[in-house]
Design goal:
The protein is mostly helical. Helix content is about 55%, strand content about 10%. The chain has 2 domains: about 1-55, no CATH class; about 60-103. It is built from 4 helices and 2 strands; from the N terminus they run αββααα. It binds zinc ion. Zinc ion binds near residues 19 and 40.
């Protein structure tokens, strides 16, 4: 996931791929650039993840609850990794802004 500062290098301001009404608060830069706004990230992305997980379930071999728990654990880990990475970035930016005052 790219931060919006990285996305500022894009030629256009990214728009949310889901609602197409709000500017993106986060972007994924891969083969295509995908932007999402915060409301859609909270409302739509979790549902999309659930659908993607369930559509891969082989009900004969594995129970839906087991699959959901396994993928939820992985998704939760990725979510908190992103929160931690952003917290570190915010702290770094704050320290750079206050570098002369801390000594
Ligand atoms: Zn949106």
């Amino acid at each position: 996931m790219a931060r919006m500062k990285d996305a500022e290098r894009l030629s256009e301001q990214p728009v949310c791929i889901f609602c197409r009404g709000r500017s993106a608060d986060a972007v994924w830069i891969g083969k295509q650039t995908v932007g999402v706004c915060q409301p859609c990230a909270i409302d739509i992305l979790p549902k999309l993840i659930g659908d993607a997980v369930c559509n891969r379930v082989n009900a004969d071999r594995e129970g839906l609850q087991d699959v959901a728990e396994r993928h939820w654990t992985a998704a939760k880990g990725n979510f908190f990794e992103s929160i931690f990475r952003n917290a570190c970035r915010i702290l770094d930016e704050w320290q750079q802004g206050h570098a002369g005052r801390l000594n």
